[in-house]
Amino acid sequence: KQWYQRRVRGQRPKMLRTLTHLIRPAIRQTKITPIAHYSTNVKYVGKNEPYEVFHARFCDAFNSEKLDSWEIRNWMQKLQLEDCIPPPDVVSCALRGCRRLNDIALAIRFIEATKRKCRAKKGTWEWLSQEIDPTLKELGIPSLTELGYDKPELALPHYDDDVRP
Q1: Given phi > 0 = left and psi -120 to 50 = alpha, else beta, which region is 142?
Q2: 3 state DSSP class of 1
Q3: What is the predicted pLDDT for the residue at 8?
Q4: Which of 37, 45, 57, 99 could form a cystine bridge with 139, CB 3.0-4.6 A?
């Protein structure tokens, strides 16, 4: 009854006033910091890795003479964990590594994973597929459209795809 009478007279309850008084300074002091780029390179955790270092690290790994099945999968996983779409020459080096190991299934899975990563920006996959097409032809690896993987048979369309009937 007392709270109701205070509200009628236009006064705010003390509990709400106290709570607002305590929370307001905390909200003003909160600073929003941007999320740092993710890198699998230990030297650049939370920082931007220079493009030259990134490019050299992955190209050297995929062109290595002692590259085996486990190593190439490890480096492909690291490449997919990076906070960027891989450049065409890094993708080409990875495909050449798959061809050296004679693992066409891994190459096709890698192309699929790269295509999925390209969904972040519209038009990226079209550009990237044009850039890696000569490498695919040189190595004898069929593209996703040649295999019919661009249009799945039984899958529902992904919400990011711009599919209109």
Answers
A1: beta
A2: coil
A3: 52
A4: 99
